[in-house]
Write a structure and sequence with these properties.
Layout (H helix, E strand, L loop, with lengths): L17 H20 L13 H7 L10 H12 L21 H13 L10 H17 L7 E5 L2 H16 L7 E6 L5 H8 L7 E4 L9 H13 L3 E8 L11 H11 L2 E6 L23 E4 L1 H4 L7 E5 L2 H8 L28 H36 L4 E5 L5 E6 L7 H17 L6 E5 L2 E7 L7 H19 L3
Helix pairs in contact: 1-3, 4-12, 5-12, 6-7, 6-11, 12-14, 13-14
This protein binds pyridoxal-5'-phosphate (PLP).
């Protein structure tokens, strides 16, 4: 703030006085906690009719400083509500994220202290916490000692780094002949990540799925054979431990067998599902996941953290290090004993992404996570049973983890188009009621409604509201109302 008093230095001092900082911090915490306390009352989809508002928000770069209070007013009173209520208990759309409070505290500490975690030497003890957090993820996922990890901004970037490892191991500099495989239900970030890694779309195969939306292993083997006959070089299979559309878990063990026989890298996309390795009820469903060469995790989904935290585990940690190891004459020497983040990822300067993971695991413990994930799964199973009993509803995908999909059928709905339209209206009208937000997906021309339980704030009462709303809206649509 510019000090204009007599005798003040000519240049502004950007530091605030301690009592001012404290007051500003309290103001932010007060607003934030009030926001959380009222989250149940927010419509689940928020008010996203905001084009006019966006136009009005455009402004030139400000010359003069603004106080904190009006900025908080703008954010908390006018803008935050104009978005999906992603942290609310009724958010059953897409794959819900999180927003647990310990992560926010960790971010605040990380930002205020702003220590440099790109290289071990600059903040050895803090980097050790990040290394610990990665090791804990490894343990949870039952990957072997020797696995290396990396925190990324999300699942897409984790997958990108996995493809780089496989590419370097199997293709070297001869990228053009390399082919990779995922199912028709594989997340589109796989093709995007492949392209970033120099593997273009004409070398990405999408393998057919079975009636439960899982990759068909016979079709995978046939596609690999076909590519080999054509002189191409299959190098990676990206399987799904929980697809975004229907929550399908591919036959991970059988795919691991194919990869072992064929000498391919097996990458498992566990962005949605991998943390379900914690509860006893769901661990068997993910059997084979821990045989992967690499695994994408999204702590901003299954660990309920705020957006911006993905993670990658690579079984042969050296493979990840070899992809990224680099140094420069101005940097301290690379570490061999300790985890050195820039040697395992593409970034040099970076924030401290591990702190929010470390803090959340310390404050909740494995017990907290195992229990919360078991609850989400139980809620999805219960809700799917209830929804299956609603007249006109046909379940297309029962919950393998915590997501299920369904559509509407009825006497008047004789064509696919009519069923799609009715199901789409169901999603829209349920969401418009405000208590829950659900979304759909299109699979092979069929529109499916889907419900994904993964918000840490979703409990039984919210699922009861969801079932009641689906039931009433389905009845109304089928009766022509
Ligand atoms: C199954 C799956 N894989 C990958 C991704 C991509 O992850 P992110 O959005 O964190 O980049 C997502 C979701 O967004 C997902 O649901």
């Amino acid at each position: 703030m510019t000090d204009t008093s007599v005798g003040a230095p000519e240049y502004p001092d950007l530091e605030f006085a301690p009592d001012v900082m404290r007051a500003m911090g309290h103001a932010v915490v007060d607003r934030s906690v009030a926001h959380i306390a009222a989250i149940n009352d927010q419509p689940a989809r928020g008010d996203i009719d905001a084009a006019e508002l966006c136009r009005a928000l455009r402004e030139g770069v400000p010359e003069a400083p603004t106080e904190l209070e009006p900025l908080l007013d703008l954010l908390f009173e006018r803008l935050i509500s104009r978005s999906f209520t992603t942290t609310g208990p009724g958010y059953l759309a897409y794959i819900p994220g999180g927003g647990v409070y310990p992560a926010a505290l960790a971010d605040f500490i990380a930002d205020v202290t702003n220590r440099y975690t790109g290289v071990w030497t600059a903040a050895p003890a803090l980097v050790q916490l990040e290394a610990n957090a990665l090791e804990w993820l490894r343990e949870w996922m039952q990957f072997p000692v020797g696995t290396a990890g990396l925190f990324t901004t999300g699942g897409s970037m984790a997958t990108f780094n996995a493809i780089l490892c496989a590419r370097e191991r199997y293709l070297g500099t001869e990228l053009r002949q390399g082919t990779l495989y995922t199912s028709t239900q594989g997340h589109h970030c796989i093709a995007k990540a492949a392209k970033l890694a120099g593997i273009f779309h004409d070398r990405v195969r999408t393998i057919a799925v079975d009636g439960d939306f899982r990759m068909r292993v016979d079709a995978l083997a046939a596609a690999i054979d076909e590519d080999r006959r054509r002189g191409l070089r299959p190098f990676l299979v990206a399987s799904s431990a929980g697809t975004t559309n229907t929550g399908a878990v591919d036959p991970l063990d059988a795919i691991a067998d194919v990869c072992a026989e064929q000498g391919l890298w097996h990458h498992v996309d566990g962005a949605y599902g991998a943390f379900f390795n914690l509860p006893d009820a769901t661990r068997p469903i993910l059997h084979g996941m821990s045989r992967g060469d690499s695994l994408t995790l999204d702590p901003h989904k299954g660990m309920f953290l705020p957006y911006g935290t993905g993670a990658l585990l690579v079984r042969d940690g050296e493979a990840l290090r070899q992809v990224h190891a680099a140094t420069a004459g101005y940097l301290p020497p690379n570490q061999s004993e300790f985890y050195d983040p820039a040697q395992y990822g593409p970034e040099l300067s970076r924030g401290f992404p591990g702190l929010r993971v470390w803090m959340a695991i310390k404050m909740y413990g494995t017990t907290g996570y195992r229990g919360a994930l078991a609850e989400k799964r139980a809620l999805a199973v219960w809700a799917a049973e209830q929804v299956a009993g609603i007249p006109g509803v046909v379940i297309d995908a029962a919950p393998q983890l915590s997501l299920f999909a369904f559509h509407l059928e009825g006497d008047g709905l004789t064509t696919l188009e009519a069923r799609n339209d009715a199901t789409e209206r169901l999603v829209e009208r349920v969401t418009a009621r405000g208590r829950v937000m659900i979304t759909g997906c299109t699979v092979d021309g069929r529109f499916l409604a889907r419900i994904c339980v993964l918000s840490f704030r979703t409990h039984r009462a919210h699922m009861e509201a969801c079932v009641a709303d689906v039931s009433e809206v389905a009845a109304a649509i089928l009766s022509g109302a």
